[in-house]
Specification:
Elements (H helix, E strand, L loop, with lengths): L4 E6 L4 H12 L3 E7 L6 H5 L4 E4 L3 H13 L3 E4 L6 H12 L5 E4 L5 H14 L4 E8 L9 H16 L19 E3 L2 E7 L5 E9 L2 E9 L6 H10 L5 E4 L9
Parallel strand pairs: 1-2, 1-3, 3-4, 4-5, 5-11, 6-8
Antiparallel strand pairs: 6-9, 7-8, 9-10
Length: 251
Amino acid sequence: MSQSIRVAVLGAQGRMGSAACTAIEEADGLELVARIGSSDPLDAAADAGAQVVVDLTVPAVTKRNVLWAIEHGIHAVVGATGWDEDSLAEVRAALGEHPSTGVLIAPNFAIGAVLVMRFAEAAARYYESAEVIEMHHPEKLDAPSGTARHTAAAIARGREAGGLGDVPDATQKDELGARGAVVDGIHVHAVRQRGLVAHEVVQFGGVGEQLELRHDSFDRVSFMPGVLLGVREVGSRPGLTVGLDGYMDLG
């Protein structure tokens, strides 16, 4: 009988962290060995013999946590947002010194959200117009969301592959920012509203038609299959992977 994968959760006191702890405890082949809160030392994860850390903390500390895990030879599955290209470059450099360690940074762990991003890239080459609307609870610290950024990047890749130019937009005056952020040439709109969890709408427009892709997470339990997939796979995937789709057989 194979040994269980020993897992520590960083950010265990938060809503996502608490849900992840429950999911890991109930999963076959996994063992939760440490719940690390904001006041707990990271060394507690190493002392507990963790092979994988799940980082569900906040942008201010997530890079530090991941670099610590790499230094200690512990694989990391990361749901915390706030990553930019400079931060990813630091992780790649650290992994260069620990080539057997794996890191997964997932903008979204919901399987449906990952599929929407993939579908959006495929659809983008066929539609002149494209915009993204992301909707989250008001406690979310960053905007636009990592999922929306990842989706916009996917749309941009699809448009480039289809030979499309800029999205048409005759707006010349927008002093209040009503047109939203622009990510890789795609307008992204962020909604923060009580009662929401995590939702995304991708709109494509062509002459005489509109295609809309939508994903809704009504409960944080929807993220747990992706978290468990990451925990089970990260040890066999050395290096940095950005996006859960890197661990999924999507063709």
